[in-house]
Design goal:
alpha/beta, elongated, 8-stranded mixed sheet, Glucose Oxidase, domain 1, 19 helices, 578 residues
């Protein structure tokens, strides 16, 4: 009996860690392996070079600065960028092509300008002041040929010593009603549009009051500025919302910085100036291009992983938004192509490297990609979107677990295994959202533009964004440090001056994406609740063996008792029971 018990104990001792390891990995999702990279993962991630990525970003910036509309979707700058991206992908050895779609386009034929005339008489040039910080809003309606010249008036915002106080205020209707804006050049605070970039809790009533005013009393042009001194640190800020409102109202618009805006406001206390606004824009319908590069999978090429970015800009050089993300896509294409050619790594799934157009029109490029590829949605294992990477703190948007893969957690674990700090944050809208929730994205776009065709697309729930912070000027209110996307500071000179988009941070965050791409093909990372048939088989075998061993043990204890009752002559038994 002792020998049998020892054998049972030995078997259970061997089986227990096996059961514990398999069950913990398979059912509970607790990692039991260490966090080190495999040799293959180490080789591939070591190929990522942040300086290379930064140099791609510099080239993207150069293209933007050659054009009055920078890389605005559908503009000459955007088209030049699309062709440059395709050439880069081809130079890495990828199959690459442009995927066209038709949509609203917008471009500028000349540099926008704003001139203030102190006496309101254009014939006296000596009293005219050029406002150097002026820039057209993205998507602004054009001024008449030669510009719009009219009396300058202001629509003042409520007095407030802090952002929190401003959030409690309403527009003074009596003050605004006394100001007729018809046919005038209107100066007002950009805070009126309700952007969280300026106010933590922007009153929604401000925007509606302002737009209703312009609808009833249409001005010749609108000039925005930061109204409050606590926003003076923000340079000229450009989004698509102001310009989109401009298109809807047929009113040209632009922005100046706080200092120039304050100068214009102070003028109105002493003189009755006029202003000339020139925005030589053209809106129409034309061709946009999504750029695609492909590395075919070696094992299961029908499955695809998309790593994406958007390459269009608002009225800035777009170094962070989204030159950084697009540079990341190029660097990953270079790395995986090189790894495949040298035998360091062959992707099992097909890898698609996609640079979307018209994200700043509100995800229009990615939505059109989904529309053109609806039949392929079921084959997409993951979408990893890079937007505004290269700054201090990396984060990834949350995803649900689908087919036993949680992409957000996989990316987070990849960062941890690389020794890089990253955080999980709630879902945000960028190009991955067109894959994650096509019906919602179509609904939002259709409220802005004439668009339909993806509400019935199969969602790719394993779609996430890697992003970095700080991003917006308004981040100062939450994190203490502002970011600079959509501002005139979104350029390469801000790397040294403001610590904006650094090569080392680009490298870290691109590595996170690359490692995640590799692990998606393996079903996730150690610790993700991934189920495999062989694991289930091992558990079943272990359970059966355990049951058999227990039954044998019980039988071994019962047999001597039965033999004793039947008069069996067992010497060992008799010696213990005389």
């Amino acid at each position: 009996m002792l020998r049998g018990f020892g054998a049972v104990f030995l078997v259970l001792t061997i089986l227990f860690p096996i059961v514990l390891g398999v069950v913990s990995k398979t059912l509970v999702g607790v990692a039991v392996s260490d966090s080190s990279l495999t040799s293959e993962e180490s080789q591939v991630t070591a190929l990522v070079n942040g300086t290379e990525a930064y140099n791609y970003d510099l080239e993207l910036e150069k293209i933007a600065l050659r054009h009055f509309a920078f890389r605005s979707a559908g503009s000459a700058g955007a088209n030049e960028t699309a062709n440059w991206l395709r050439a880069q992908l081809e130079s890495f050895g990828l199959e690459a092509w442009l995927e066209p779609f038709n949509f609203t386009t917008w471009d500028l034929a000349s540099k926008p300008s704003l001139l203030v005339d102190l006496d309101g008489n254009e014939g006296t040039a000596s009293d005219q002041v050029v406002i150097s910080s002026f820039q057209s809003e993205h998507l602004s309606w054009p001024t008449p040929s030669g510009g719009a010249f009219a009396q300058l008036v202001t629509l003042p915002l409520p007095a407030a010593a802090t952002a929190d106080e401003a959030a409690t205020k309403t527009i003074d209707a009596s003050v605004w009603s006394a100001i007729n804006t018809t046919g005038k050049v209107v100066l007002t605070g950009k805070e009126v549009l309700g952007s969280s970039s300026f106010l933590p809790r922007a009153p929604a009533s401000w925007r509606s009051t302002f737009l209703n005013k312009l609808w009833v009393e249409p001005p010749l042009a609108v000039v925005y500025t930061c109204w409050y001194s606590w926003n003076a640190f923000i340079p000229s800020f450009f989004g698509s919302s102001a310009g989109h409102a401009s298109l809807g109202l047929h009113v040209p618009s632009g922005s100046v910085n706080y200092q120039d805006g304050l100068y214009m406001r102070n003028l109105l206390d002493t003189v009755s100036p006029s202003a000339r606004v020139v925005v030589d824009s053209a809106a129409g319908n034309g061709t946009h291009y999504n750029v695609v590069g492909r590395i075919r999978g070696s094992g299961n090429p029908d499955r695809t992983i998309i790593v994406s970015s958007h390459y269009d800009t608002v009225m800035t050089a777009g170094f962070g938004d989204n030159g950084g993300g697009t540079a990341g896509v190029l660097e990953l294409a270079r790395v995986f192509s090189y790894a495949a050619r040298t035998g360091a790594y062959a992707a099992n799934y097909t890898l698609l490297f996609v640079a979307f157009a018209a994200e700043e029109f509100w995800l229009v490029g990615s939505a059109n990609y989904v529309k053109q590829h609806k039949s392929e949605m079921a084959n997409i294992s993951a979408v990893i979107n890079l937007d505004c990477i290269g700054n201090d703190d990396a984060s990834v948007t949350q995803t649900s677990t689908v087919d036993r893969l949680n992409l957000g957690q996989t990316i987070l674990r990849a960062a941890s295994d690389l020794g890089i700090n990253a955080a999980l944050e709630p879902p945000e809208d960028s190009d991955h959202a067109a894959f994650l929730d096509p019906a919602r994205v179509e609904n939002v776009i259709s409220n802005l533009w004439d668009f339909a065709g993806i509400s019935d697309a199969l969602p790719v729930e394993s779609s996430a964004m890697i992003i970095s912070s700080p991003i917006l000027p308004g981040d100062k209110w939450s994190g203490g440090t502002p970011g600079w996307i959509h501002t005139s500071y979104d350029n390469s000179t801000s790397t040294q001056a403001l610590g904006w988009v650094k090569p080392i941070k680009l490298e870290e965050q691109i590595k996170i994406a690359g490692l995640s791409m590799m692990r998606v093909q393996e079903g996730g990372v150690p610790g993700n609740p991934v189920y495999f048939p062989w694991q289930i088989l091992v558990i079943a075998i272990v359970v059966v063996i355990a049951v058999v061993v227990i039954m044998l043990f019980v039988r071994a204890r019962r047999n001597p008792e039965e033999e004793n009752r039947s008069g069996s002559q067992n010497p060992l038994w008799d010696s213990k029971n005389p």
